[in-house]
Amino acid sequence: MSFQSPQLAPQVVLSGHGLVKYYGNVVGLAGVDVGVRSGEALAVMGPSGNGKTTLLHVLAGILTPDQGEVWLGGERVDNLNDAARTVLRRRRLGFVFQDNQLLAELPADENVALPLMVDGLSRRDAIGRARNMLAQVGLAQEAGRRPGELSGGQAQRVAIARALVGEPQVVFADEPTGALDAATGSQVIDLLIGAATYRGAAVVVVTHDNSVAARCHRVLTIVDGRVSESMGAAR
Ligand SMILES: Nc1ncnc2c1ncn2[C@@H]1O[C@H](COP(=O)(O)OP(=O)(O)OP(=O)(O)O)[C@@H](O)[C@H]1O
C-alpha cells in the first residue's frame, strides 16, 4: 500500500513536446518528447553529433524549435520573442558550461553577482548574495580571487554558484566535468546536482561520462535526433 499522494509528487517543471530542429538540411532533433520534474536530475547521453546540445539549447530557449513546444512552469516559452527569452534565461534558468565562461577580469564574487546586477539588484545586495552562495559551494575564502587564480574545480564551483544565485527553476549543464580530472569532476557533479536539487531546481545535464549519468535520477539517450532510450525511475 502506498501512502504517497499524487498531489505531493514533484511537478514537471520543464517539458518539450514533439521537438524538431533543422540546421539547413541537417537534422538536429527529429521529434523529441521530454519532461523533467522539480528536484530531479536528468542526464542526456548519446553519440557525438546526435542532438544532445541541440536539445539542451532548444529547452533552454537559446534556439527556437522548428516544430514542437517547450513549456516552463506551466507557461509556453518557445514562442516568446528574443528579448523575453533572454529575460527568462536570466531569471528562471541557470547554466554551467564545460569551460566555466567566467569573466577573467572580475573576482569570483563579482562574477556570481553579475546576473543579479544585470537584473537590477543593487551592487551591495548582489555581492552579499554572491558571497553567501560562494560560501555554500565551499569558496568563502576565494571570493576575491580572479578565475586565473583558481583551480579548474574551484572555477567550476564559481560557475555553479553563478548558475544557482538567481534561484532558477532549471539548471542546464553541458559537459560540466569535461575539462576536469575524474576526482575533481565527481566533486563538481555532486555539488551541482546536490545544491540544485536541494533548492528544488531541476537539472538537465548533457554528458558523455557514465559516472555523471549514474548520479542522475534519469538518463535519456539521444540517437539521430530521437530518444532511443529512457532509463530511471519516475519520481
Ligand atoms: N550551428 C550549427 N550549424 C549546423 N549544424 C549544426 C549546428 N549545430 C549542430 N549542428 C549539427 O546538428 C547535429 C547535432 O549536433 P549537436 O551539437 O546537438 O550534437 P551532440 O550530440 O551535442 O554532439 P557532441 O556530443 O559532439 O557535442 C550534428 O549533425 C551537428 O553537426
Q: What would your notes on this structure say?
A:
This protein is globular. The protein has helices at 52-59, 82-92, 108-118, 123-136, 152-164, 182-198, 210-213, and strands at residues 12-23, 26-37, 41-45, 67-72, 75-76, 93-96, 170-174, 202-206, 218-223, 226-231. It is built from 7 helices and 10 strands. It has a 6-stranded mixed sheet with strand order 6-7-8-3-9-10, with helices on both faces. It has a 4-stranded antiparallel sheet with strand order 2-1-4-5, covered by helices on one side. The relative contact order is 0.19. It has one domain (11-231): Rossmann fold (3-Layer(aba) Sandwich). The chain is an alpha/beta fold. The structure holds adenosine-5'-triphosphate. Residues 23, 26, 28, 46, 48-54 line the site of adenosine-5'-triphosphate.
How many strands appear in the DSSP assignment? 10
Number of domains: 1
CATH homolog superfamily: P-loop containing nucleotide triphosphate hydrolases
Summing up helix and strand content along with how strands pair, one would put the structural category as alpha/beta
Instruction: Give the spatial strand order of the biggest sheet.
Output: 6-7-8-3-9-10
CATH class call? Alpha Beta
**Secondary structure tally, helices:** 7
- What portion of residues is helical? 25-40%
